[in-house]
Amino acid sequence: MTIAIRRITFCAGHRLFHHEGRCAHLHGHNYVVHFHARADRLDAVGRVIDFGALRDALGGWIGEHWDHGFIVFAGDREARAALSAIPGQRLYVLDVNPTAENLAAHLLHVVGPKVLAGTGVRLVRVELWETENCCAAVALEGQDG
Prior knowledge:
Elements: E1 4-14, E2 27-39, H1 51-65, E3 69-73, H2 77-84, E4 91-94, H3 100-115, E5 121-131, E6 134-139
Parallel strand pairs: 1-3, 3-4
Antiparallel strand pairs: 1-2, 2-5, 5-6
């Protein structure tokens, strides 16, 4: 099995709804994501996919939806109201709390299939580094990419 891995960085804010500590407050991170992509066969050049194509598809989606914005839980009415009061504020609403685990799962199960449709490539693992010391990884069942 051959895997292509693309690193993407972005800045975003969030808060963890009902968190017992400091993460209950609005704050931000410099996230680093490692996207692990796989294809059934290598292309004519000998690649899973061109790294630039991964950057454009996945990094483009992140740039449009998450970078320099806030990612909030749909049930967090206070944060949504506060952030919506700021003209032009970028806001991405999730059906789940925006933990590193849930963000990685969203990228793997929702974003990846959408932006890679038709390429013959699929994400098999996403690692989302919230800080240089803390990472959440989500993989497709049966994939150790």
